[in-house]
Structures are given as structure tokens and as C-alpha cells.
Amino acid sequence: MPAVKYIHLLIAGFRRNTIRSLLIFAQVVFVFILYGSLQGLIASMDLAIRHTHADRMFVASRLGRGDLLPVSIAGDLRRTPGVARVTFESQLPCTYRRPDQYVWALGIDPETYFTVYAENRTAPDQLRALVALRTGAIVGELLASRLGWRVGDHVTLQCFTPRRDGTRDWGFDVVGLFRQVERPEFSDLVLLNYSYLNEARAADHDAVNIYGLQISRPSESIQIGHIIDARFLNSPHPTSTSSEADAARAGFRSIGDVALVSRTVTLAALISLLVASGALMMQSVRERRADIATLKAIGFTHGRVLALVLTESIGIWVAGALAGLGIAQLLLPRAQDIVNNGHVPSIVVAFGVVLAVGGGLLSGALPAWRTLRIHVAAARQ
Amino acid sequence: MSTARQIGALCLWGLQSLPSRPGVFLTGFVSVVLVAAVLTSLLSMGDGIHRLAVNNARPDRLVALSRGAPNPAESSISRDAYRTLANDERVRRDAEGHPLATGSITQAVDVVARNGRPDNVFIRGITNPRVYPEIRLLRGRWPRPGVHELLVSTKARQLIRGLEISDLVPIRGADWRIVGSFGETGDVLDLSLVADAETIMAAVGRTSYEEVVLVMRSPAEIPAYVASMSADPTLMADVYREAVIREQTFAGVRRFLDFVSYFIGAIMAGAATCAALSSTYATVDARSPELATLRAIGFARHSIVVSVIAEATLIALLGALLGSSIAWLAFSGRIITTNALTFPLITGAHEFLISALWVLGIALLGAALPALRASRL
Q1: Of A12, A115, B175, B229, which residue is 20 to 30 A from A171 by alpha carbon distance?
Q2: Model pTM?
Q3: Alpha-carbon gap, residue B340 to A265, rounded angstroms
């Protein structure tokens, strides 16, 4: 029998009670929005933790975010066994033209910054231009497109850190752009010469916010952290050294139990969907006794009828699952408060489709089995 | 037969015939139970955090932060400002005439949890224990000023290694001895160590407090006190009622939890509405011969509409009660520990009510259209 006829029969089955079929479909869609967005959220957080650089560590002050470290300890850090490269940044939060248009500026050391943070790529001649021009700035591509800045522009930022002369207007010359090749969303910032920032600001001289380290062997990260922190523990500037993965994990700490909660909720929703869709398929088969008996009368085997009912059930589940996962994929990037770059990874989609096939099979099994007992004689009803 | 009696009879008949179609009944019922259970437990998390924040907040206690600071961690109040705040006649005094006021500071220390994971706890440094009557000494004694001594909470002692009485805790190169323990307070202090503020500040090289906590003579004088402190141009401090500032500290976590609760709740409610619709449609379809007969013998259309909706609503509310009760029995009082927060789940009337209202909405949405179909038979 040609497959086309099967499709006709499936559509006929779906339209036997269009409202009911649509309602089962909609319920499947809702449950898979839930599955897709919750599992996608967890997977995105896992990814953010795993896609960190195992050979990168950060050194900050142990006394908290507001406390700075002296730039003079860079040499000590570089001499620590296992540390290959050291760079640092000093933060300069600013606004541009409007008080609500924030620009995040970092004073960096051009010689070392781009070797430690190798995912930030800039052209060699632009990097040379930054070294040559004290007030030069290399702008992230995202920030440049957000504010329409181009190489050659002179821009003035209003920054929270005052200058020596008491003003808060900081002028820069855009000498280049950089591209974040791994996470383009992290290029919403502007990089400046630390030497210029340090000289021109009114306070915090010779201090930096964070050191970035590149270590030779990732397996030594814990040991290196202990060595550095012990070295500075009793100094005026105790340090807190962490790997990039630790830092990412700390960001998601307060929502650590979300994984457990969402798994439980998704499972419960799937079970209730199984009950609902099973019960409705059952009723649908009961109503279609005469139709099914007619099919058997014109030569359909038991097996074919069984397959037809199962295909209908699986079809609704898979179609609903794909629609739900699609909606979750649209929703997740909006959850930026919770995770950057949220999306439904393909593994979650694949497992979702497997779940849908399984759910369709399970909820269709009892109704399909029922059709075996429908006798040809029922067609006369 | 009056309309009311018609509706009553129809509902009774409807409920009696439920067992004949268990599958259809379960379709709507299970999803409603689930929505109520999930919503109740998620909202209980938010309430638990709220309790953690304001459990010991007293109406006569005020908290002063440096002007413009959004939370204690970013606030810095000098000893001079402390004196101005505390030496006001509206601040209550103890028997010796000292103001019931304390400078307060928190300092994180690295510890190892009982399960071997590195963790951190906060030391709360205070200058005057009398401001915190909720810290009740169970064993040992209070830390003496100028000596490296700590008081440990019962819960921190249970969860973290090396916090028994007379244990030594290394802080900034010096050993601090645990000299006593205090009972459960039901708020953030439960996972803290308590020390003398000035001693901690000297050890970590800080010269200002994070906040000043004051006990007032009378709650009625609070507005005037707050007004005169805000008007003082040299003070540069904002004074808040304690509950306000404690709530604010947890506002971020609460916003996140509320978002998760209502996001999950809304999607599940969507699914449950579909289930309720198909379940009620199926019920109406199954009963169509009887309903037609009833119409023929004189039952009014609106009686049928009302009875279908009433039946669905009744079942849904029972489902809500069951779902919320399951969540209450299973989770209420259970302690959730994340790395950043430890808080109990608290289920109260609030959770039951909100779940019931949501479920009511689902039932009305799910029953209205099928009820119209039933009346057109």
C-alpha cells in the first residue's frame, strides 16, 4: 500500500475530532516548552562552566570587589612556578552621552593582554597604534556596532572615576577594533592604555582590579592558587586566586538547586501529559470503533491498524515536541539576567525527540492494543 | 423545578457519573493537582527566603548605611557617624546609660564543609551584643574585645568542620579561638560566626563599619529620628527600618525565584488548561444523549452551562487542595542548602490561596467553551 494513503488516513484520524487533537498537541507543546527552556537553561550554565579556559586563573583581592591590588605584584606573580604569562586590568565604568548608556572600559597592558586573553583578536598594526598613542583605544566589535564607533573617531566618555583635574570627561581615540572569537557577546567593552588611565585618574594609583594568569599545566591550577594566596596572605594585600571555571561556577551558585527542581517539575509534567494523552487517545479509539472495523473489513491487517494508531500518537507528540522546543529556543536568549547566550543545545533537542517518541509510544500503546479487539462486525454499528 | 435545583441535580448527577470514565476525569484532575503542587512548592521557596530575611527584624530597630549605598556590603560608616547616630536621645539606653547601638561589619572566612567541600562563612563583628537579644548564648562565653575570639552558631558548627568550642580558626595569619556557641536564630546569623567588631576590623585593616544598628526608645519616634538624621549634612547616612534593608538584601534572589515560579507556573497552567478543556469536552460529549433528554424535559440552557462550569470548578479546587497539601506535607520546613544560601521552605495560607486562584482560572477557562457546547445540544 502506498505511503500516501497512510498519510490521508492519519490526517483523517487527526481531523476526526479536530479540537481534541489540537488540545493534545497544544498540551505537548506546553510540556516541551517547559522541558526545553529548563533543560536548555541548565545546559547553557554547564556549557558556560565547561567552556572556560582550563589554563587561565584570576587573582583578585581577598577583601572583596571594591579592594584593589598593587600593580607591583605582577613580577611576583610571573615568577610563581607554573605561571607562564601575567596580565592585568583596571576597571573604568563610564557612560556615553546619556546617563543610562553604559560603557565598560578597561585599562590594560597592551603588550600582555592579548597574549593571555587570546580569544580577543586584533590586527597587529592596530595593536601597535595603541602602544604608540597614549589616549588610544581598541573597541570591542559589539560595542563599536552598538554605538556606531569607527576607527579614527575621537570619543569622550563620562566616567565614574574622576581625573586629576576633578573632571569626569575622558577622551579617547579609537585606533582599532577587537573581535571576541569565542563569545562575541563579551566584546561589549573598550580597552585603553593602563599607563594613561593610571596617570590621569585622581585616586587608586598603581592599583589594578584583577590579574589574569596563563598557567603552563591546567592540572596544577589548585596548587598554584594555594602558592599565590599563601605568598600574600600576611601582606597588606591578601589575594584570592581562582580558576576561570571556579569564577563561572560562583556566578551560578545561588541557583544551584535549579537543576534538581527543574528535573522534578519536567518529569511530573511529562507524567501528567502521558495520562492525559493516553486517556484522550483511548477515547478517540473508542469513538472510531466503526471506522477501524471498516478498515479491517477492507483488508487492513491488525498490525497495520495498530501501526496507524501508534503513528498518530507519536506524530502528535513529535510535532508538539518540535514546536515546544522551537518556542523554548526563542525564549531562552531573553533570559539574559540568568545566563548569557542561553540556547537549547542539540543534545537537549535530540533527547527531547527521543522522549517524544517514547511518550507517543507509551500513551498510544493501550489504545492501539485495544484496536486488536475491534471486530469487523463493529463496522455495522 | 427552580434553576437552583436544576443546577444542583445536574451537578450531583455529573459527579456521580465520574467513575464511569476514569481516564477522562484523571486527564483534567492530574494536571490541576500538578500545577497546584509545583506552584505551592516554588512559592514556598520565596517565602522561606523572606522568612530568612526578616525573621528577627524588629519594629524598634533601625539600620544606618552610608548615603546612597544599596546594601551593607557596599556601605562604609565611620566611628564619628556612629557616635552621631547613637548619641541621640531617641535611641534606647541600657541600665548603665549606654545607647543600645552597635557598629557592625561582616568578613568572609574560608572554611571546609563537613562534606569536604571548600566553603565560606561570614563573621559578623558587632560592638554591642545587647542590640541582638536573638543571639542567645548556649555554651561558653562571649568573645572579649581585643582578643582573637569567636562565637559560633549551632548550625554552622553542624555544617562546617573545625568549629567546635576551643577550636582555632585561621584568619589573616592569626588563630582565632572559638569560645562559645549560640542557638538558632532562624535568619542569616544561623550560618555565621560572631566576633567583636573592633577586633575584626583591626585584624583585616578596616577603619569603618558597614552598618550601624540602633534600638529606638519608641517606634513612634522613628520618623522624626530618620528625618533629623537625613537632614544632617555632615552625617552622610541613610537610616532604614530593619525589615526594609534585610528584604532589600535578598531582593535579587527573590526576584529570580519569583520569576522561575511564575514562568514554570504559567507554562504548566497552559498545559493544564488544554487538559481541562479536552477533559470537559470529552465529558460533555459522553453525556450528550442524556443532556439532550434533559433539555427536552425542560432543563434550562443556563442551568446546564452553570452546572458544567460548577462541576469543573469543584473538581479543580479539590485538585488544588490535594496538590498544595502534597507539596506542604512533602516539603514544608525542609531546609534547602545551596552554596550561597541555606533556607527553609515555608508553606502557608498564601501558597494555598494563590494556587487555588490559579487553578480556579484554569477551570473557568477550561470549562467555559465545553459548557456552551453542552447548552447548544
Answers
A1: A115
A2: 0.71
A3: 23
Instruction: Please give the distance of CA B345 from its chain centroid, rounded to a whole number.
Output: 8
Measured between alpha carbons, how far is B8 from B6 in angstroms, rounded to an integer? 5
**Chain A residue numbers touching B278 (CB-CB < 8 A):** 19-20, 23-24, 27, 276, 280
CA distances from A366 to A302, A312, B303 (A): 14, 13, 37
What residue ranges in B172-325 does DSSP mark as E strands?
174-182, 192-196, 211-215, 237-241
| Per-residue pLDDT tens digits for A69-117 | 999 999 999 999 999 999 999 998 888 998 778 899 999 999 999 999 9
Which grid coordinates belong to B60? 524598634
The whole-angstrom separation of Cα B325 and Cα B33 is: 10
3-state secondary structure of B345: coil
Identity (one letter) of the amino acid at B366? G
Instruction: Detail the DSSP E strand segments found in chain A.
Output: 56-61, 69-70, 83-95, 102-108, 120-122, 136-140, 154-159, 169-180, 189-193, 207-208, 210-215, 239-243
Sign of CA dihedral A33, A38, A41, A44: negative
Provide the shortest C-alpha distance from residue B74 to chain A (in Å).
8
Q: Looking at this predicted complex, what is its ipTM?
A: 0.73
Q: How many CB atoms lie within 10 A of CB A126?
A: 16
Residues 6+ apart with CB under 8 A from A182: A51, A119
